[in-house]
């Protein structure tokens, strides 16, 4: 049984100020019904003959009954809490029976066919359940035991997708008796139904620290990355991310995810990828163009402690743009401690705040990279910082601008692009002699 992880917050002052995210689970209950004639029926076990059109069938009598439910909207990665099959009994309700419940081991069960042995020959789940029920309600609904372990085996298949179909089977295995059930042919209202309760993995962000979630993200495609909302998300306070997220696109369009608030922190396991990098989405929509991430914060942006922004497309192609901007005069952008940022464009902009890249920080772009400090303050590159802009198609630029400030480069700074433009630095350029610059430089 999978457990929904809970994030234990470090007992730091920051955690108490920004008591933040807790991965929890949203519970969903749904009922699925048989919709068409070929979605219920039976095979006779002794000769394989199929019947999909009878208005009734037997548990017992040498029948293997099948029920196929379409449009099971359970996302991959969900935990099935309960799954109950309900059937309508019309006779033999007290007959002694021993019922084996099992399901089809497939990602998306096909409709039943009238071919002999179709139900019998379908591959079955490893998980099954045997029930010896009490007498049933005659001319009434009767529930199976909880079949969640059987359904979970299907949901856990790597190829399972929300919306696929599931087929359950029941067989009487004691030869003791038979109970009669209606099929959909009797009437839609008598057709079997499947009640399912499941939980979807999700994460809540309490940006203003009042204990209530302000932003909720789900991992509905089950790839382990919680999905960022498309478009602009505004919040009060600070958004602290220490979980894997993905920014989502639509087929054949370019989309933006914009987070706008007072502070933005990406840290300690916080990773933001483009869904283009998700095997699920990129294989389903090969025409996707790329998704951009924009962060506009009033007070600060901190990307730190192993955090990553990887807006790759398929393979190494950087498909999405990264835009980081602080808006309050004096608000800094700090990128430090084992951070990797990869995108097509990377733009970092402040208004009178420092841009500071420190300690094993690596930025790679496949078009341009700009660092722009408006008003006043400096740009700092300090200790093992690598900036690289390269592409097979056209020149790539790295552009530094400090309208009234300096550029400081200290302790093993590596800069690599077709053109590195320092012309926007109005103050001094400080270089401790360990800077490696590859490419054409301008104004330095
Ligand atoms: Ca039928
Ligand atoms: Ca809140
Ligand atoms: Ca996901």
3D structure, described in words:
The protein has 444 residues and is mainly β. The chain has 2 domains: 13-25 and 202-442; 26-199, Sandwich (Jelly Rolls). It is built from 4 helices and 35 strands. It has a 22-stranded parallel sheet that branches. The protein is elongated and about 95 Å long. It starts with 12 loop residues before the first helix and ends with a strand. The model is unreliable at 1-24 (pLDDT under 50). Bound molecules: calcium ion (CA) (3 copies). One calcium ion is lined by residues 37, 40-41, 52-53, 183-185.
Compile the SSE list and pairings:
Layout: H1 13-17, E1 21-33, E2 40-44, E3 50-51, E4 56-59, E5 63-72, E6 79-91, E7 99-103, H2 118-121, E8 129-131, E9 140-143, H3 148-155, E10 164-172, E11 179-182, E12 193-205, E13 215-218, E14 226-228, E15 231-234, E16 238-241, E17 244-247, E18 254-266, E19 271-274, H4 279-284, E20 290-304, E21 308-310, E22 322-326, E23 332-336, E24 340-343, E25 346-351, E26 355-358, E27 361-365, E28 368-374, E29 379-382, E30 385-389, E31 397-402, E32 407-410, E33 413-425, E34 429-431, E35 436-442
The structure holds calcium ion (3 copies).
């Amino acid at each position: 049984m999978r457990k929904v992880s809970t994030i234990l917050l470090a007992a730091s002052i920051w955690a108490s100020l920004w008591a933040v995210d807790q991965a929890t689970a949203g519970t969903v209950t749904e009922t699925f019904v048989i919709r068409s004639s070929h979605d219920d029926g039976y095979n006779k076990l002794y000769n394989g003959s199929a019947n999909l059109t009878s208005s009734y069938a037997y548990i017992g009598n040498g029948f293997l009954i099948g029920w196929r439910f379409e449009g099971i909207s359970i996302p991959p990665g969900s935990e099935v809490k309960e799954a109950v099959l309900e059937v309508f009994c019309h006779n033999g309700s007290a007959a002694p029976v021993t019922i084996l419940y099992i399901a089809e081991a497939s990602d998306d069960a096909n409709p039943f066919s009238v071919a002999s042995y179709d139900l019998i020959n379908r591959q079955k789940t490893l998980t099954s359940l045997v029930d010896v029920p009490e007498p049933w309600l005659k001319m009434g609904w009767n529930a199976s035991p909880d079949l969640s372990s059987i359904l979970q085996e299907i949901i856990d298949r790597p190829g399972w997708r929300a919306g696929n179909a599931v087929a359950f089977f029941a067989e009487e295995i004691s030869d003791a008796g038979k109970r009669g059930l209606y099929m959909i042919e009797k009437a839609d209202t008598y057709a079997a139904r499947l009640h399912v309760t499941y939980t979807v993995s999700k994460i809540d962000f309490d940006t203003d620290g009042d204990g209530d979630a302000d932003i909720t993200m789900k991992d509905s495609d089950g790839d382990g990355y919680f999905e960022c909302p498309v478009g602009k998300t505004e919040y009060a306070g600070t958004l602290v991310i220490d979980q894997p997220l993905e920014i989502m696109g639509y087929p054949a369009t370019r989309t933006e995810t914009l987070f706008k608030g007072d502070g933005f922190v990406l840290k300690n396991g916080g990773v933001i990828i483009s869904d283009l990098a998700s095997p699920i989405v990129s294989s389903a929509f090969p025409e996707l163009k790329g998704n951009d991430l924009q962060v506009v914060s009033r007070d600060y942006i901190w990307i730190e402690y192993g955090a990553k922004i990887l807006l790759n497309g398929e393979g190494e192609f950087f498909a999405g743009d990264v835009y980081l901007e602080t808006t309050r005069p004096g608000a800094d952008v700090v990128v430090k401690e084992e951070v990797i940022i990869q995108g097509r464009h990377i733009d970092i902009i402040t208004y009178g705040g420092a841009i500071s890249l420190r300690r094993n920080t690596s930025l790679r772009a496949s078009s341009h990279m700009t660092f722009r400090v408006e008003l006043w303050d400096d740009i700092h590159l300090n200790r093992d910082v690598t900036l690289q802009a390269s592409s097979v198609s056209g020149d790539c630029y790295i552009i530094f601008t400090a309208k009234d400030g300096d550029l400081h480069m200290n302790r093993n700074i590596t800069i690599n692009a077709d053109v590195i433009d320092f012309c926007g630095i109005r103050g001094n350029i400080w270089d401790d002699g360990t800077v490696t610059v590859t490419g054409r430089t301008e104004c330095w």
